[in-house]
Amino acid sequence: MGSNSPHELLERMLRAGSVPLAVEQGWKGSRKLHSLIASGEGSEQLSIRVLGGRARGGFGFGLTDERGVPTVQDIQRGGLAAAAGLRPGDIVRRVNGGELLFTCESAVQALRALSGTEVTLSVLRPLEDAASSSSLKSACRWSNDALLLNAGEQHHFNLSTHEPVVLRYEFSAQSQLTIGFKVGLKDGEESNDGLLVCARSSGERGHVPLHQPGNYAVVLDNSFSYLRSKRVAYAVSLHSEAEHEQINRRERSAILQREMARRQQQSAALLDHINEMGQRLSILKEKVERLESRISSCKVEKQENDKRLAEVHTELKMLTS
């Protein structure tokens, strides 16, 4: 398939982080799913080996793009994929350690190219589907990609914890509109005093430690707006300190990998530019050498001409005197 195929264009956009543009171009995913694949946050990351046969069974599982990302479905009963632990709903993130995969078509093409070989899949299993060993279970994540907050309205939800945890959050309002976001202990009357998070912006991402076990309230606030309704996306999750540090390391690793890829591309582009300038410089040097040679020839010719001019002048002077 050519380099300008639709799914490859979408992959380029998504790898560059241009989620809104990709959605405009037909991608069915969301910012949350993009973030999930890019960082791995909010998922259990697994490495699963499967053997691809050239017969009808293939790799023993199917992929669907219903959610925009390569999601596992239709696992063949008794097949190698099932035996390896692959589950419906798992998201294929990489094939054999290759580039991140954001579209189903890219994952399918990567697998087809390796049909008949053993393949290592980097798989994401969202925490709500994973059998986590942590004491924080799947109920500890709340999100909505398209919450409508009417003018003057607030959206509340409560969460509780029985141990010290870290609350991670992110929110954004469409069209860069301002929204309020608050987190605090649920103790009756709402007050800004004692709030752990009290933000008011078009979007923010952060974390806050919840040292005290108890009940907490999360509020998305549009009560200050009398006329304008707003579409809001948010995600809130609870993690142990160890999980939080792991997520930070993964996010930092993803950032560094993206920067490394960008630097590598820039380095390759600069090398091409250097080579091009070197070729042009070689051509210019050849021209300079030819010009210098011509200048030397002209100087010699001028000396001979000046000498003959002096002889002619002397002879003419003698004839006219």
From TrEMBL:
<keyword id="KW-0175">Coiled coil</keyword>
<feature type="domain" description="PDZ">
    <location>
        <begin position="56"/>
        <end position="127"/>
    </location>
</feature>
<dbReference type="InterPro" id="IPR036598">
    <property type="entry name" value="GOLD_dom_sf"/>
</dbReference>
<protein>
    <recommendedName>
        <fullName>PDZ domain-containing protein</fullName>
    </recommendedName>
</protein>
<dbReference type="Pfam" id="PF01105">
    <property type="entry name" value="EMP24_GP25L"/>
</dbReference>
<dbReference type="InterPro" id="IPR001478">
    <property type="entry name" value="PDZ"/>
</dbReference>
<dbReference type="InterPro" id="IPR041489">
    <property type="entry name" value="PDZ_6"/>
</dbReference>
<dbReference type="Pfam" id="PF17820">
    <property type="entry name" value="PDZ_6"/>
</dbReference>
<dbReference type="InterPro" id="IPR009038">
    <property type="entry name" value="GOLD_dom"/>
</dbReference>
<feature type="coiled-coil region">
    <location>
        <begin position="274"/>
        <end position="301"/>
    </location>
</feature>
<dbReference type="InterPro" id="IPR036034">
    <property type="entry name" value="PDZ_sf"/>
</dbReference>
